[in-house]
Specification:
Layout lengths: L2 E6 L6 H7 L6 E2 L1 H9 L1 E3 L5 E3 L4 H17 L4 E4 L9 H10 L2 E6 L5 H10 L8 H13 L7 E4 L8 H5 L4 E2 L5 E5 L7 H6 L8 E5 L10 H12 L5 E4 L4 H8 L7 H13 L4 H9 L1 E2 L1 E6 L2 E6 L15 H6 L8 H8 L5 E5 L10 E3 L2 E3 L9 E9 L4 E9 L28 H9 L3 E5 L6 E6 L1 H6 L12 E4 L4 E3 L6 E2 L8 H7 L4 E6 L3 E8 L4 E5 L7 H28 L2 E8 L14 E9 L9 H11 L2 E2 L2 E5 L2 H14 L12 E5 L5 E5 L1 H21 L11 H10 L11 H10 L1
Length: 746
């Protein structure tokens, strides 16, 4: 949830110990960790080993980037630094204002100075600071008051208390009301609201609006005036922050719109009714990420998008999961909640997603109030009403008769599961050849029993046995009716790997111009269309059931959002395309090249037909823009052989030092005028892939108590070897990027 916790206190005061004891380490950003990562440990003029403070500007720039990213997702964040004077608070407080965070300061300035000095001397040598640093800190604490927009908590007030208890939203008891009414997404539609409240608000009823007040509808002005008139001032009304409230938040903070819908549809309607930023801030101040309450024996969780279960601590869950829900838009969140919370007494109410058009009670104990009101659907309402002997559950659906015609590809569009026609199928002849090929393996799936994949075998890969049939069997998914659900590239090879990709043969084969595309360093994600299941089909390599396929789906959904998913349905389903992505996940699947965040890169849009064909780069860029994702980047282009040959010699001469636009990359994919492809792996990537294997040899030798491998016959590799063998076992568990950064830092 949106809480920012600032640690304030001198070195040695006990801040880091408090973080560990309170279980806050997973949520903590420490400038010292960035100092170590960027500057390492150096020797001071007096001979002590100490943390390098020579890169403070970059350290705090890194802190700001990470802090801004985490707060943009509504994550709980702790900053472990000293914060000695008002100016130190400027950065986090400014970001907290932008992202609507509550700011807390755990104040260790009351810890006796003598105790801080003593603890400082007992720390690891490189962490010890001169006594004067601590003396100066205490002088500053005495001179400077805490900023007014920060809630200060002295450590003495936390004795024996779990700090997270203070952050946990309090469960309200609404049993004094006759009724608790939950009102679903409004999406800028006022006509059903007017009908619902024809008799006005009642004092014996508690009202909960579950978010997404605006967008997509054509009555945003009426809705926002209703909200300011009725929702904001009333004590018996709660308002849940939904993903569309983010656009109101940006308006409130005077930031440019990031949504075309808000910019060109919603905002003009708000301006027409003179909606102000001051009003926007007042509305958002009313909003809760999550709301829990009891009502005459019932325990209720209300969020905008629905959770898989009631978490042990709501405060530790990122706001993004309340706004967009756990899992993806199509995940069966209602049934999962019902299964996991059965017998606990908990129920939940949410809106936002309902791709399967489930009823209001979508599963026992889970109520779904999303019914496409903005496209002529219904406003859904669910009430708990106190009866004589029990609580009654009452549901209501009010049709919206004032709406604009549904555009193709919007959320909830039902794309007909019609036969894709022979053009979108593999021929019986090719299917027979694929299934009968000794180096092609078919795989079936529990989650998609009507689909199977056909991929070349490990033997084909290791032995290099390729022909026109098994070279096509790469990421190829076929339904029972022979329709192509998804497909990737035919297999292509590295420079010098095969006779046809050797330099001596390329001279006469290539048709110029020859284009280079930057090769990303992740794994392949394939997005297709399951016309039988009437849904998007996410896969990685040969399966939709691996954790990699799940991560691909998660990352794509996070980046594209609801609208991107809807547009993907239209693009992939109706245009008969398969979209191929590189999935870069620096946390769960780091490779050799460092990335800051998890993201997908659109590589190509391939027609779901037997004959391999792709869209051109301009169309590809348009699709990426519509989906809200990155697109592959062009590298150099060569007009003739001598230019390409000279470039190859140049990058070979530069070896590990070659960079493309000041960055290390994995390499390039080359494509000539006739569509012939091959890959070029750069030395930097190949070297660190080799070093990763060498690291693994050292780990295995240690595990089996065997002699360590000999140092490689390469100066840098030998240096890295010597550094690795003195690292503890747990250090060698880190990925090669982390090890490389630590090695280079030292």
């Amino acid at each position: 949830m949106r809480h920012l916790i600032i640690m304030c206190g001198a070195p040695g005061a006990g801040k880091s110990t408090f973080i560990e004891q309170q279980g806050l380490r997973p949520f903590t950003i420490s400038p010292d960790e960035f100092r170590l990562r960027l500057g390492g440990i150096v020797m001071s003029p007096s001979g002590e080993m100490t943390v390098n403070h020579a890169h403070e500007k970059r350290v705090w720039a890194e802190v700001e980037d990470v802090l801004d990213f985490k707060m943009g997702q509504g994550q709980l964040v702790v900053i472990d630094a000293t914060f000695q004077k008002p100016g130190d608070f400027t950065l986090p407080v400014r970001l907290a204002e932008r992202h609507m965070y509550e700011v807390w300061c755990v104040d260790f300035s009351g810890v006796p100075k003598e105790l801080a000095l003593e603890r400082n001397r007992l720390r690891e040598a490189y962490k010890v600071v001169p006594d004067q640093v601590i003396e100066t800190a205490y002088e500053r604490f005495a001179r400077h008051p805490m900023p007014k927009n920060v809630t200060r908590i002295a450590t003495a007030d936390l004795e024996g208390e779990q700090f997270l208890d203070r952050l946990e939203p309090k469960m309200r008891d609404l049993s004094s009301y006759r009724e608790v009414m939950h009102i679903g997404d409004l999406q800028g539609c006022y006509a059903p609201v007017e009908e619902l409240f024809a008799d006005g608000f009642k004092d014996d009823t508690y009202y909960i609006f579950i978010g997404d007040l605006l967008d997509r509808g054509i009555q945003n002005g009426e809705v926002i005036r209703f909200a300011m008139r009725e929702i904001v001032p009333r004590d018996n009304v709660a308002f849940i922050y939904g993903n569309h409230e983010y656009h109101i938040q940006r308006f409130a903070k005077n930031l440019d719109p990031v949504s075309r819908e808000f910019k060109f549809n919603t905002l003009p309607q708000l301006e027409a009714v003179k909606f102000t930023r001051k009003e926007a801030n007042a509305l958002l101040a009313k909003a809760d990420d999550a709301f829990t309450y009891t009502f005459r024996g019932h325990k209720m969780l209300v969020t905008h998008a629905g959770l898989s279960r009631v978490p042990d601590r709501l405060a530790t869950l990122a706001g993004l999961q309340f706004w967009k829900g756990t899992g993806t838009y199509d995940d069966p969140v209602d049934q999962t909640f019902s299964d996991l919370m059965a017998g606990t007494g908990w129920m939940q109410v949410h809106g936002h997603r309902n791709s399967n058009k489930l009823p209001v009670e979508a599963a026992p104990g889970s109520f779904n109030l999303e019914a496409e009101i903005e496209f002529g659907g219904q406003l859904r309402v669910m009430s708990l009403i106190a009866g004589k002997n029990r609580v009654e559950i009452e549901t209501r659906e009010i049709e919206n008769k004032v709406f604009r015609k549904k555009a193709k590809g919007r959320r909830g569009d039902s794309i007909s599961a019609s036969d894709p026609g022979e053009r979108g199928k593999v021929s019986e002849k090719l299917l027979t050849e694929l299934e009968g090929h000794s180096l092609v393996r078919a795989k079936s799936f529990t989650t998609h029993p009507h689909i199977r994949s056909l991929n070349f075998t490990t033997k084909a890969f290791k032995s290099g046995q390729w022909d026109d049939v098994n070279i096509m069997a790469r990421g190829l998914f076929i339904a029972d009716d022979r329709a192509i659900v998804a497909r990737s590239y035919p297999k292509f090879f590295n420079l010098e790997e095969r006779p046809e990709t050797q330099m001596r043969n390329l001279r006469n084969r290539l048709q110029f111009p020859l284009k280079m595309w930057v090769k990303e360093n992740g794994y392949l994600g394939i997005l297709g269309w399951d016309h039988i299941g009437d849904e998007l089909f996410f896969a990685s390599k040969s399966t939709p059931e691996s954790e990699f396929a799940g991560w691909f789906r998660e990352i794509f959904t996070s980046e594209a959002g609801d609208r991107g998913l809807s547009r993907a349905r239209d693009i992939v389903g109706k245009r008969n395309l398969s979209l191929v992505f590189e999935v870069n996940d620096p946390v769960r699947d780091p490779h050799m090249i460092a990335y800051d965040t998890a993201h997908v890169v659109l590589l190509d849009a391939i027609r779901r037909e037997e004959k391999y064909a792709r869209l051109d780069y301009q169309e590809l860029k348009q699709i990426a823009s519509v989906l809200g994702v990155r697109v592959k980047q062009p590298g150099p282009t060569f007009a003739q052989w001598k230019d390409f040959e000279g470039w190859c010699k140049s990058i070979e001469a530069q070896g590990r030092y070659y960079q493309w636009r000041n960055e290390h990359i994995e390499g390039f994919v080359a494509e000539d005028l006739a569509g012939f492809h091959f890959k070029i792996k750069l030395d930097f990537y190949s070297f660190w892939k080799w070093m990763r294997g060498h690291r693994d040899k050292i780990r295995r030798a240690r595990e089996k108590d065997q002699p360590l491998p000999a140092p490689p016959d390469d100066d840098l590799a030998a240096d890295f070897h010597e550094w690795l063998i003195v690292q503890p076992d747990e250090a060698l568990e880190r990925d090669i990027i982390q090890l490389r950064q630590e090695f280079e830092g030292q």
